[in-house]
């Protein structure tokens, strides 16, 4: 899957795609395992092969707020921490058993110095992440909870069913009870 993903960008030649996996570490994570925790410095970024992740932060009152879900084919990291080297403000947790390909920051930096194709690739990934963040901000401001839930279902229906209600409700900014009413009302 990772070779197909990289190959779709049309940046790397076949030989470079074969060597690709040597730069990454393959990992399996158990359900509820953490990729990174709030307060830690994130020094890795990972490509999700299988599983569902949630990104969340904890308020001063100790309440978890889920702000993002990541699915197969997505990248995960505490990006601000990864970029700045400062402790992260978020936690990334596997909601299901997961498989990921991980690359360390020092390896990404070495690859970009050695081959301009990597710099181009990482720039494209950064641009995708920015567009996704912008979409999320607009979605938060424009769409109600039912619309946001429908969009999740349209994109990842099977995997959304594996996300606990309290995390979905937190992501949507509603109570689990309200989410239950929305789920009953939606017909596809």
Question: What does the model show?
Answer:
The protein is of the alpha+beta class and 188 residues long. It has a domain at 2-105: Sandwich (Jelly Rolls), CATH 2.60.120.10. It is 47% helix and 22% strand. It contains 8 helices and 8 strands, in the order H-H-E-E-E-E-E-E-H-E-E-H-H-H-H-H. The strands form 2 sheets. A 4-stranded antiparallel β-sheet has the order 1-8-3-6.
Note the topology.
Blueprint: H1 2-7, H2 14-19, E1 25-29, E2 34-36, E3 44-50, E4 53-58, E5 64-70, E6 75-76, H3 79-84, E7 91-94, E8 98-104, H4 105-114, H5 116-142, H6 145-160, H7 165-172, H8 176-185
Antiparallel strand pairs: 1-8, 2-7, 3-6, 3-8, 4-5, 4-7
- Rg: 18 Å
The major beta sheet can be summarized as: 4 strands, antiparallel
Which H/E pattern describes the elements? HHEEEEEEHEEHHHHH
CATH topology of the domain at 2-105: Jelly Rolls
Brief rundown of the structure:
With 188 residues, this protein is an alpha+beta fold.
Task: Throw out a few tags for this protein.
Jelly Rolls; 4-stranded antiparallel beta sheet
